[in-house]
Specification:
It is built from 23 helices and 30 strands. It has 747 residues and is α/β, with parallel strands linked by helices. The strands form 7 sheets. A 7-stranded parallel sheet has the order 11-12-10-13-14-9-15, sandwiched between helices.
Amino acid sequence: MIAEVVLRDCVWQTNKCYDYIVPEELESKVRAGQYVRVLFGRGNRAEVALILKLKESSDSSAKLKYIDSLVEEEPVLNAEQLDLLKFVVKRYACTYGSAMHQMVPALVTKRTGRSQLTVSIESEEKAKEALESESVGSIQQIRALEWLLDVEEMTLSDLMQELSISRSPIDTLAKNGLVKIRSVKFSAEELSEKSRGEEEIPEVQKSEITLNAEQQAAVDAVITAEGNKEFLLFGVTGSGKTEVYLRITEKILNEGGSVLYLVPEISLTPQTVARIRAHFPNRIAVLHSRMTAKERYDSWKKIQKGEVDIVVGARSAVFAPIQNLKLIILDEEHDGSYKADTMLRYSARDVARFRARKAGIKLLLGSATPSVETYYAAKLGYMTLLKLSNRAVSGAELPKVEIIDMQKELAASNRSILSRKLYTAMKDALSRGEQIMLLLNRRGFSQNVYCTFCREMIRCTDCDVPMTLHTKTMGKHKMLICHYCGKVIPMPQVCPTCQSEYLAIRGDGVQKLEDWVSEDFPQAKVLRMDQDTTSCRGAHEKILRAFRDHEADILVGTQMIAKGHDFPKVSVVGVLGADSVLWQSDYRARERAFQLLAQISGRAGRGSVSGQVFVQTVFPESEIFAYAASQDYEKFFESEIKYREQLSYPPFKAIGGIMITHENEQVCAMQANMVAETLKEMSVNLKDDMIILGPCPAGIPKLLNRYRYQIVVRAKNKGLLSDGFMKLQQAYAGYGYSIAVDIDAMW
């Protein structure tokens, strides 16, 4: 018997299928989808491999080796997931190894009872001194030190998972004598104790809700449909989409099926889990990237064994090994968080669509502001369009949206970050005991620091981007942080370029907004929610729960506060610096601006209190603001689809990207030109079906001390992009080029 395998840790040179002989003693035990240990290469180094299929003979002319042993008795991927693995490899032009690492938890091959690396503080006094003296060089190091001062000791893998950081900053702390890394052998019980418990999920009481006519029609349409069918649930904010999901889920579970429920943000997971658990206690598993390795493994194992029939999670949960899957729900399907931007640049929406079609099951997409591509597909009849036109709470209406011209505010001598109308509305709301949400999509205190003498901005030396001024990050004051590499430097007293003392700040950030609001409304309790305040696991839910329980009156934050939250007491929403989204160099900028404005507006007036929304801009004549003010998605779509068609943007053509990086700028440019020429030669017969644009320096030309050149590829469809990118990666395998490809480029 022959096993066709792929290496779990393969690189492009070894990204291929290999045949191994199955030893007689293993013939009754091996199955497709299992991890096995094989001896690979001339040096016979031990490697973990995945069995793709078993066969009777091999076409290989090479002398075949024997499988050494089984890593797992049970398959790590079932038959459906093996098909999914092959789809991901082909669609996203990635290695089998990249796909496997995304689909299978790391602990599958790192069993308990083996040595684990732990991290602890070397000297508490020395660590506190380093934090106070501002000698720690990156925000990742600061977070790791503060975390370890609190928990004393933690496994290395869990610390990296907890803080969403790589090993590099921890190694730097160890090198500087601030932490120590040691190898410790734990039993299974001890390892469980070293892992933190599950994230706290708020309790929600199950309530009997009578569906309105539109909700009931949507439920009936999905339940009565047979076989593979796609639906778009297009409902205004607060229209009760979640209740529709729950009724359909109940029907699926009663018939013995399972449901995969995806949400875009980790911050929405506890809220969603709480509502589902109120209806279906003890039948739910959670998967997301903020869980520790042990927690992810335990959840994955429960799902694989069929011990749960509802899986809730963010993007990565789309790969969960669910048994008897009958429905996939993709809530807030328009959200950019469903698109990965790391090693494997996959779209959870596209993966969910493939999975649903391959399994012949239903796919339900939901949004108040669907992506242009999805709504276009629904208009053409590729999926069934279901509409919810009214808010679910009786008497609740969409909020009144007002566009505020900040140029007029300035002309009226109002130099506050808040317009006069927004300030008055906030004052009135607070006097009535209501709540307020303010969105400013800029982290930090001030966008950048510049010299008034030479006009140079203070930029990161490792990345070609301005550094952002922070004033209260992790208990420190007045520091400059690079939001791309995490580098931290104290606020300089003089200009690094010309030594002038005349430094100024510009561009208000959310920290400054928090300070301003606290000064203007000293009696109000203010919370801030951004990447800096939610860097640790559980922080999202802690902030949201405090606001939901009215422990705070005002919530200020970046775009993460706009997504799917339900706060019935919020009556006033303010959007500050609304123009910043429109000015992005991306064809999706108009769409993102409309979605963000519509979503944050939808947080107001969801209960019995009417809502007011104030959008502050210096460009009030933009049609996007007019569409957002009237909450008219249809008019926005009509305008946007014409714009996309004229310029051959998706959904009319597919757009992919290639990024080449190198430490030397000249070498990077040379390699980018060679890659572009190779692509042009490959696509010469495709003519207008594939157009190569570039290369040129990327929008951020230098990142993490590496120069970046990009190539944009416009193709007839994604299939052509995938084939071209796969051939390109294979052509340059082994040449030492750093090439990243993206089928849905978001650079």
